[in-house]
Predict the structure.
Amino acid sequence: MCQRADDALAAFADLGGDVVVKPLFGSEGRGVLRVSDPDLAWRTFRTLEQTGCVLYLQRFVPHPGWDLRVFLLGGCVLAAMRRCGGADWRTNVARGGRAEAVRPTAEEERLALAAADAIDAPIAGVDLLKDDDGQMLVLEVNTVPGWRALAAASSIDVAAAVVDWLASHPP
């Protein structure tokens, strides 16, 4: 994360010249873009700097066409889904991907729980992605995760589970 285009260009190089640029606040893959051309990186980062945006870059991770969303509630896995890519590299259901309910492995559960715990998030959608070496990586921890696709895929009333949990854990 940075605020200056020059810093983003240095990060672009450090991250291998193939990055995902994300808005700090967003959902459903909107505003997320992949940049792998140095000239496009220069133009993109300069434009974002001029509009006062924070530049948030991640190394692009080649993947098998799917990722895993693990929905955590109060330190437990409520449900998980595999999101299979749609028309491009993004796997978001809102962008044409499809969701299927899955049971995460013990290692995937451990990784998701540790990621949410690291930021003290009792409610979280943790996105995991397997890289080319087969290592599972944490892409992000969503503290306000969408759940429509998860509810449809898993047949779990996620909204009711969240409300019940909140009612039994007042601030």
Summary: Residues 63 and 134 are 9 Å apart (CA to CA). The mean pLDDT is 92. The first helix runs from residue 5 to 14.
